[in-house]
Predict the structure.
Amino acid sequence: MDTAIKCPKCAADKVIKSGIVQDRQRHKCKSCGYFFTVDKLGKRIDNYYVTKSIQLYYEGLSYRDIERLLGVSHVSVMNWVKQYGVVRPDILQRNPEVELLSHEELMKYMEAKDNLKDMGYVLSEVGDKFLLIKWNKQKPK
């Protein structure tokens, strides 16, 4: 058994060689019977971006907005939302405004108290900048 290789389907390490296909070694998982020719590593995205994407989606940003801000594919964000079962609360009937600010810009913004009056907001660090998401608070009727 080849112990360095794991099955990409079930992650078992009971893998044997099973011939050659198009000049590549073919393997078979003895646990689930799956045949494969190479390790399926794929492109790994840092968990920081996965978590940040889900947070931004929950706060009301669209998939495309998250793509523009973080530089990850909107399709990846959709897949993560589906994978982790993230559901936005129904009360999020707001259109958030998003600003990406440096530390100095953020300090100036926060000093002007009227900027956040009657606003809900979330502040989050993204790399060396700060992401400010704000929306008008809905006043009770």
